[in-house]
Amino acid sequence: MMSQSQGIHQLLQAEKRAKDKLEEAKKRKGKRLKQAKEEAMVEIDQYRMQRDKEFRLIQSKIMGSQSNLSDEIEEQTLGKIQELNGHYNKHMESVMNQLLSMVCDMKPEIHVNYRATN
Amino acid sequence: MALRDADTQKQVKHMMAFIEQEIMEYYEKKEKQIEQQKEIQMSNLMNQARLKILRARDDLITDLLNEAKQRLSKVVKDTPRYQVLLDGLVLQGLYQLLEHQMIVRCGKQDFPLVKAVVQKAIPMYKIATKNNVDVQIDQESYLPEDIAGGVEIYNGDHKIKVSNTPESRLDLIAQQMMPEVRGALFGANANRKF
């Protein structure tokens, strides 16, 4: 009789020990998983920050060059307009005289295809 | 245990790769957008610049034509020159219209001058066209004050009009000669390929 209850007792204890070990293992696994997730999140955040930094660099480079470009274009345009004015002043009189002579000097003539009808 | 660990590790790595992929695509898209914006702005700036230059050219042409009109009104006030001009304007107007009955309209102040010119022109017209003609001078309405001079010639029922004033001639001629005028004033167009 004593050996039976001893045996059962031992079994129960073994069962309890096994259950405890299982629990421990699960807890450890849970911890490891959590740790792995946290490490992953950290890595991802780092990656995101790095991309963001790269992006801002590109962005500020582009915005900076924009204002330079628009100043340059403005300058070029003014230069071209000045050139235009210079050219105009040089040739204005001769063009004017040509136009005026075309307006004022005329030799009235009838159309080439005119035929007298009666 | 070790196998399941490796499995979970793989899963975690997969998810990480997925999320990092998303992040990468997001930033690549943003970078592309900025590039596009830059190009659009660039194109806008170039366009504005071009329009500015074209507007400047247009203004210069307008100045030229206004100056020309001023000089024409001076010619009109110069009586001997105006006389010669008027002879040509009337005769050519008649030759242009070629109707059997014509009415000549002029400015009120030119009436006596134009009357004489028309008298001179009628026989010349008859010889050149080998036709008879009836030319009257409009005594009911005259050209408005702001027109420097010249004549308008109408057919009998006022349905056809030939406008031969210095202004109308200038407008016509300037319009027809515009390419040459632009070339002479501003230089040939470097972009023209034909």
From TrEMBL, chain A:
Task: Give the gene name.
Answer: ATP6V1G3
Keyword Metal-binding present in the record's keywords: the answer is: no
What GO cellular-component annotations does this UniProt entry give?
A: synaptic vesicle membrane; vacuolar proton-transporting V-type ATPase, V1 domain
The record's section on NCBIfam families has:
V_ATP_synt_G (TIGR01147)
This protein's superkingdom?
Answer: Eukaryota
Q: What does this protein do?
A: Subunit of the V1 complex of vacuolar(H+)-ATPase (V-ATPase), a multisubunit enzyme composed of a peripheral complex (V1) that hydrolyzes ATP and a membrane integral complex (V0) that translocates protons. V-ATPase is responsible for acidifying and maintaining the pH of intracellular compartments and in some cell types, is targeted to the plasma membrane, where it is responsible for acidifying the extracellular environment.
Query: What is the annotated quaternary arrangement, including any partners?
Result: V-ATPase is a heteromultimeric enzyme made up of two complexes: the ATP-hydrolytic V1 complex and the proton translocation V0 complex. The V1 complex consists of three catalytic AB heterodimers that form a heterohexamer, three peripheral stalks each consisting of EG heterodimers, one central rotor including subunits D and F, and the regulatory subunits C and H. The proton translocation complex V0 consists of the proton transport subunit a, a ring of proteolipid subunits c9c'', rotary subunit d, subunits e and f, and the accessory subunits ATP6AP1/Ac45 and ATP6AP2/PRR.
Task: Report the record's Gene Ontology biological process terms.
Answer: synaptic vesicle lumen acidification
- Gene3D superfamilies, per database record: 1.20.5.2950
Q: Tell me the protein family, please.
A: Belongs to the V-ATPase G subunit family.
Q: What is this protein called?
A: V-type proton ATPase subunit G
Which regions span the lipid bilayer? none
Keywords linked to the UniProt accession: Coiled coil, Hydrogen ion transport, Ion transport, Transport
Q: Which regions form coiled coils?
A: 8-50
A Pfam family of the record is V-ATPase_G
TrEMBL record, chain B:
Q: Which Pfam families match?
A: vATP-synt_E (PF01991)
GO CC annotations on file: proton-transporting two-sector ATPase complex, catalytic domain
Gene3D superfamilies membership? ATP synthase, E subunit, C-terminal
Record-linked InterPro entries: ATPase_E_C, ATPase_V1_Esu
One GO molecular function term of this record is: proton-transporting ATPase activity, rotational mechanism
Q: Does the keyword Transcription regulation apply?
A: no
Mind listing the UniProt keywords for this protein, alphabetically?
Hydrogen ion transport, Ion transport, Transport
Family named by the database record: Belongs to the V-ATPase E subunit family.
Q: What does this protein do?
A: Subunit of the V1 complex of vacuolar(H+)-ATPase (V-ATPase), a multisubunit enzyme composed of a peripheral complex (V1) that hydrolyzes ATP and a membrane integral complex (V0) that translocates protons. V-ATPase is responsible for acidifying and maintaining the pH of intracellular compartments and in some cell types, is targeted to the plasma membrane, where it is responsible for acidifying the extracellular environment.
**What is the protein named?**
ATPase H+ transporting V1 subunit E1
Q: Organism source for this protein?
A: Rhinopithecus roxellana
